[in-house]
């Protein structure tokens, strides 16, 4: 790599971006021969700027300056953890913009009540689960994708919602092999959009599992209640089990029997017990008996994204970047 390109890479690293995300943003056409061309050098910088949300001028000058900053709210994050968040904010907003541009339009989720969303979903399937939530988001013009590459060296967050041009995109980050925890996360993020928590050109980041976090934040509580109402039909479900006598196997049997009778996905019901009674180990053990074949849920999320996104509506460098971030390695 030439001096100028390696200096550029160092500057991007110094601004807090991970090597993996810089590699993903680096255009495939770049070569040592391209380095001697001024127009290729400019093109390289414009591509990186577009993909990573950096002001193009900054890449020609000396300091990396993120286009999108001071527009994000971070949930469950301690003040001591806030370095490098400008890089995350610009990446998230830029990525959301690309997904929105490549996704079909729709009425969006803002203002849609949990009860309405649940009744729409129940006209198509017997319970509300992850596939039905994903399908609804895309049908309403809200892309949902799972990030396979994380823009920072530091710990990954849980999920993000970003808005561009009055539309929204949901970026899932958590890794899980079970459908129900991801369904809860997605329903929580849908709640943030529907309840108007993410205004135009803003980004909201959930740093931790919304279900498992101790909530002292009004928006977080409201998004949890929204999720519970969509998934269970009740924002405040009165579920109580004596977990001294009710083990995970009995919980799994009970929710498999009773969930479908109430239009509730058994995994969602087991998680609701964990949520209400702060009994995550029992709920997670029950999940393993409910979904007996664990598989990376992010792959399922991105299989739908792949079928829905029109990559030809993006510039080729930007399309390559989005495909790498979503783990599509066939470009
Ligand atoms: Zn949240």
From TrEMBL:
Q: What is this protein called?
A: ImmA/IrrE family metallo-endopeptidase
Entries under InterPro entries matching the protein: IrrE_HExxH
Q: Where is the IrrE N-terminal-like domain?
A: 166-236
């Amino acid at each position: 790599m030439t001096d100028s390109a390696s200096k550029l890479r160092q500057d991007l690293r110094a601004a807090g971006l991970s090597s993996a995300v810089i590699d993903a943003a680096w255009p495939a056409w770049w070569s040592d021969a391209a380095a001697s061309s001024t127009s290729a050098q400019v093109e390289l910088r414009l591509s990186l700027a577009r993909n990573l949300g950096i002001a193009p001028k900054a890449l020609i000058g000396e300091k990396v300056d993120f286009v999108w900053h001071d527009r994000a709210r971070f949930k469950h994050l301690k003040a001591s953890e806030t370095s490098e968040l400008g890089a995350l904010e610009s990446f998230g907003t830029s990525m959301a913009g690309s997904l929105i541009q490549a996704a079909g339009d729709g009425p969006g989720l803002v203002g849609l009540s949990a009860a309405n969303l649940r009744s729409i979903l129940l006209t198509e399937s017997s319970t509300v689960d992850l596939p039905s939530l994903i399908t609804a988001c895309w049908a309403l013009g809200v892309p949902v994708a799972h990030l396979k590459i994380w823009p920072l060296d530091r710990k990954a967050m849980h999920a993000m919602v970003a808005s561009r041009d009055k539309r929204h995109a949901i970026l899932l980050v958590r890794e899980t092999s079970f459908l129900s925890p991801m369904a809860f996360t997605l329903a929580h993020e849908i709640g943030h959009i529907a309840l108007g928590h993410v205004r135009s050109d803003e980004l909201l980041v959930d740093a931790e599992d919304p279900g498992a976090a101790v909530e002292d934040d009004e928006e977080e509580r409201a998004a949890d209640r929204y999720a519970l109402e969509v998934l269970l039909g009740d924002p405040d479900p009165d579920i109580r089990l004596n977990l001294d006598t009710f083990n995970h196997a009995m919980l799994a049997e009970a929710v498999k029997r009773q969930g479908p009778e109430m239009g509730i996905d058994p995994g969602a019901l087991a998680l609701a017990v964990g949520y209400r009674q702060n009994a995550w180990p029992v709920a997670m053990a029950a999940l393993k008996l409910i979904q007996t074949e664990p598989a990376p849920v992010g792959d399922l999320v991105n299989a739908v994204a792949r079928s829905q996104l029109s990559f030809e509506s993006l510039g080729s460098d930007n399309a390559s970047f989005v495909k790498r971030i979503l783990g599509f390695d066939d470009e």
